[in-house]
Structure formats: C-alpha cells, structure tokens
Design goal:
Number of domains of chain B: 2
Largest sheet of chain B: 7 strands, parallel
CATH superfamily of the largest domain in chain B: Glycogen Phosphorylase B
Mean pLDDT of chain B: 86
Strand content of chain A: under 5%
Largest interface: A-B, 32 and 29 residues
Shape of chain B: elongated
Number of helices of chain A: 6
Distance between the termini of chain B: 44 Å
Strand content of chain B: 15-25%
Helix content of chain B: 40-55%
Structural class of chain A: mainly alpha
Low-confidence stretches of chain B: 384-391, 393-400
Radius of gyration of chain A: 24 Å
CATH architecture of the largest domain in chain B: 3-Layer(aba) Sandwich
Radius of gyration of chain B: 23 Å
Distance between the termini of chain A: 73 Å
Strand order of the largest sheet of chain B: 3-2-1-6-8-9-10
Shape of chain A: rod-shaped
Order of helices and strands of chain A: HHHHHH
Oligomer: heterodimer
Number of strands of chain A: 0
Number of strands of chain B: 17
Chain lengths: 182, 400
Amino acid sequence: MSTLDWVALVAVVLVALAWFLSYSAARLDRLHARVEATYAALDAQLVRRAEATLELANSGHLDPATALMLAAAAAESLAHADADEREREAVESDFSEALEVALTPEVLGDLRSGDEMTQAGLERVSAAGVRVQLARRFHNDAVIDVRRVRSKRSVRIFRLAGHAEMPRTIDFDDALPEGLHD
Amino acid sequence: MRIGIVCPYSFDIPGGVQFHVRDLAEVFLGQGHDVSVLAPADEDTVLPDYVVSAGRAVPVRYNGSVARLNMGPVSAAKVSRWLERGSFDVLHLHEPITPSVSMLAMWAAEGPIVATFHTANLRSRIMQAAYPIVRSSLEKITGRIAVSEDARRTVVTHVGGDAVVIPNGVFVDRFDGAEPHPDWVGTAERPTVAFLGRMAESRKGMPVLAAALPEVLAEFPGLRVLVAGPGDPDDVVDDMTPQVAAACEFLGLVSDVDKARLLRSVDVYLAPNTGGESFGIILIEAMSARAAVLASDIPAFVRVLDGGEGGERGTAGATFRNEDPHDLAEQLLRLLRDPGARRGLAAAGRKRAAHFDWSVVSADIMAVYETVTDGASRVRPASDMTPRWAKILRVRGGAS
C-alpha cells in the first residue's frame, strides 16, 4: 500500500472511532438524564405521600396517638427531602413502617366507613404510596442501565461519563399497609 | 392526558395484544383522555376513529409464529409524523421487541415512554441477535410493565432491571351480563363444554381434548363440545374418531357478543392449552361469565386461577396435568357429575375475575403514566442521538 492509502485508512479508522465515541457519549448522556428525571419523579411522589399523610393525620378521624405518630413520620420525611440519599432511605423506610403500624385493617375499615373527605384523604395516601413504589422501581431500572453502560471498557478508557457521579439504586421499604390498595 | 399508544400487530387480525390496546384506548377515552393508537392496518379496513394506520402489514415469521407486522422507511416516516402531530404526554409501546412500529416508535421518540411486555416466551437466540440493535433504544423506556409474572421474568432475564406486573383487563360486566343462548345451555343428558381458539394450532390443545373425549363420552354419550374459533374443522376432524367428531359442533369464528353468551351458557369452559401462553385472558373472560373453568396446569393458567398467592392450586378453577388426556377426562367427568362443584367454581371464579376488571387495570396503568410524566416534558422526536460532530458538520454545510 502506498503512503496515501495508509493515511486514508487511518483517517477512516479515526472517523469511525470518533463517531462511536460521540454516539456512546450521547447515549450515556441520555441515560443520565433518565436517572435524574426518574429521581425527580420519586422525590415528587415521596413529598406527595408525606403531604397526603400529614393531611390525613390532621383530619381528626384518627385517634390522637396514631395521628401524632403519622404526622411525626411525615414531617421527618418532608424535612429530609434534600438530605443525602442514604439518609433519606432510612427516613422513608421508617415512614413506610409508621404507615403500616398506623393503618391496620381495622383502622382502614373505620376510615373507609367515614365521610367522603376522609375516604378521599385515604385514597390520596394510597395513590401516592403506589406511585412511590412505581417511581422507585423505574428509577432503579434507569440506574441499572447507566451502571451497565458505564462498566463498558470503552466508556471507562475514554472517560465518556465525564465527572457525572456513578448513580446508586435507591433501596428502602416501600411496602403499603395491607389492604390499603387492591 | 394526551396518550399515544403503539400496537405492533395488525388490527385486521384478532389477537390478544390488539384487543388489549383497543380496550385500553376505549377505557381512557371514556375517562376523557385524548388517545391516539398507531397500528398497522390494510387500506380498506374500517378502523375506529382513534386509530391511525401505520400502513399495510406484511406477514412475518418471528419468535415461532407468523405475525402481521410492518417496518421499513415508509413506516418509519409515518411513525415520526404521528409522533410529531400527537405531541403526547406519554407514549405507551406494546411489545417493543418485535420488528414493528413499536420498535420504530421507540427508536424515533424521546421523553416519557412506557412499554408493556406481553410475551413470556421470547427465544433467547432472538434476543441475543436483537440485543445490540435494540439495547440503546430500550434504555429510553422509563416505565416497564409486564402483563404476567412470566412476561416479567422475560424482561428481567433479557432486558435487565425489573417490570411492574399489571395484568390484561377484562370488561367483567359484559361477560357477566351476557344472555345465555338456549342452543348452548347444557342439560343433564346433554351437558355442554366450550373450547375457544385456533383449533388447528396444536398448542391450543385440541389434540389433547380429542384424545380425552372417548373416555368422557363413554359416561356422557350426549356430551356436546362447542368449538368456537377460526380455522377449518376438517383439519382437526381428520385426526378424530367418528364418535368424537360427532360430539364436536363447530361454530366458526364467533362475535364478541356470542363469545360472552357461549361462556355464559356452557357447563364447563375447557382450556387444554399446552404452553406458550403468557397470560390466559380467556380464563378470566370465562370466569367473568360464571363458567366453571377446567384448564391445563401450565404456570400462566395456574397463576390466573389461584392468584399466585400460594393458595391451593387452581382455587378459582379446576386444573388437569398438562398434555395428559386421561387426567383431563377424569377432571372433566368429576365436574360433569357434580353440579354443586361447578357452581362453587363459578362463584369463586367470578370473585377472582373482579381483580382483572378494566376499572382496576386502567387505574394501575394510569398510575404508571402519572409517575413517568410527573415533571417530565412531552414526548418528542429523538434528536440528540445524532452525534454532535454530525450536527456541527450539518451546520457548517448549511452555512457555506
């Protein structure tokens, strides 16, 4: 091969490499955006769950001890909305547990036989709880996708992820009280 | 909410995914949402006004059966136009890993995307081949739904991550409220049993039923087997003994109304399917119509019947050992002899069916939509997959 051929070949290889790297970077960029969006959705649902619970606690249809415990757990959750993820996980697990302790089948039965406002309030807590589960699952799916792509050799060697932090899955107990949603 | 739904299979042909998409769209329209469905269809097919045709579908052999799908640049352009015009809040793709408009839409769109996985038996060699092609666009899906535990397992194994299980829906009242048809109601001497589905497809279990019938006919010579579904009876009658063939009455393809009436009329609904079922919606329809259900014990059916809650096997319906004609005959005889047992199964089945009513299912799907759209922008045509240097080149080219 002549020098010109070699130069052409090298040029082709370089262009292909540039295309590949730029494609991978765009893909990774999009994945990071998905992680951020799903985290924002989870955040919004967690806040909604806490607000709905606070409302229910203040409705006067629960005994004061239960109401106080729920209100306290909800307030903790709202106060930690900007906390770091690990801390938040612990707070939200506690919150789920508080809901489970408070909303026993008997209490649920009482609330359901109450007036429309109470039923609507309970429905809001249930709806937010379901959406917390969905949002957390969707967020973790996104995180798993990012981590898989970032573990690829080409991504690591060329540092395509830049300075973006490696996302972690969010794990907390998001189980709903039995019978709250069927 | 503006909802765009993509159905990969042609609306010309009846099928589980198509029915699911149609019903889902109609439920959301009824609730006041804006819904547009993109699906392949022949030019002369009359479509509901919420369906936009993605063009004519071609028969394609994929994942072990022939499906009518469409692909190619013309379809891709139609998909992009539909996406642009729709400006949807959420895009809901069905069966995204098929060579179809679902995949084209997944490729072409960006934003809040939900995908429902229906199949439970995606072949792994197909997935291996498809992996590099679909991997990066699968990453765009924010919310994954699987219609059954089996479908979910397919997602977990082949796609990674997880999926939320939301079953297919049934309009329970339409079946429960159906008028029994005098011709199809069984009597003590001439009990009736229904079989539904493509009879020539052996995985629907007609051969198992045919092998079991002589034993049943020995005790109930007047038994009538009402077979409803597409296909040529001659294809299956050839393999039957004359006595068995005489017991079968072929109704051909029946309307939705007649299907409900049939299930409401018969003594036992029989589902001898040997496999390949992800969900078994027909069992739920039969339970909604208060028919006593006898089904093969394939995992999908067992889960529908007992709710997968570890209860006694098949509490809302009876089961027999899959592909075992003798066991089928025994279980069927047990039910035919005992009207009380049939009534008990029918009552348990009706209760179980309520879990699958569209009112419940659509609320669960709406929760997914709301979760993925919360704070997100609308669905838009994908743009940033074009490499940056290509954009720069294009801008320079335009300038010079």
